[in-house]
Write a structure and sequence with these properties.
mainly alpha; 168 residues
């Protein structure tokens, strides 16, 4: 989903639900803490792994990154729309937030898939250095935050779509 459409949805949601703005800011604060802890685990690994990768995630992503409605809403709760952060790097399929030194989005408020999805090499390195359990705990905390966020944005639904079918 493109940034312009996400921005339109965010503006329409806030206009219709102004009281939810504070809830989004609170969740943005939790998101920030979780992501900074994830970055602390990943930064020591990705610096040695990612530059040598032949299919770097950020160079093979959709044009506007992996923003979903939920993570865009909490990004916007504490940040301006990221239109001016887009980078023209000449990669036809590369993330538009990939700058010369890496991601230009704030390290504490990146799209959920960008911080939750790891390739096999990064996962092996997390395991090798004994950080896999800590990362899994942070991942699960982000899942819980996403569930809360879903219910704020879509109160009419009973359950987040990712949770459907997981109940026994």
């Amino acid at each position: 989903m493109g940034l312009e459409l996400l921005e339109e949805r965010y503006q329409a949601f806030i206009e219709k639900n102004p009281a939810c703005r504070e809830q989004l800011r609170i969740l943005s604060g939790y998101n920030s803490l979780i992501q900074l802890n994830m970055r602390a685990l990943l930064d020591g690994i990705t610096v040695g792994v990612c530059p040598a990768c032949a299919a770097s995630c950020c160079q093979c992503m959709p044009v506007d990154g992996w923003f979903t409605e939920g993570d865009y809403f909490i990004f916007r709760a504490c940040n301006e729309a990221p239109f001016n952060l887009r980078v023209d790097h000449g990669l036809p399929n590369g993330c538009s937030f990939l700058g010369p030194a890496g991601c230009v989005l704030p390290p504490d408020c990146r799209p959920f898939p960008c911080v939750k999805v790891n390739c096999e090499t990064v996962s092996r390195e997390l395991e090798r250095c004994g950080a896999q359990d800590a990362f899994t705990n942070l991942y699960e905390a982000l899942d819980r935050l996403q569930e809360q966020l879903w219910h704020i944005i879509h109160p009419e639904t009973a359950q987040h779509p990712a949770a459907e079918g997981s109940a026994a």
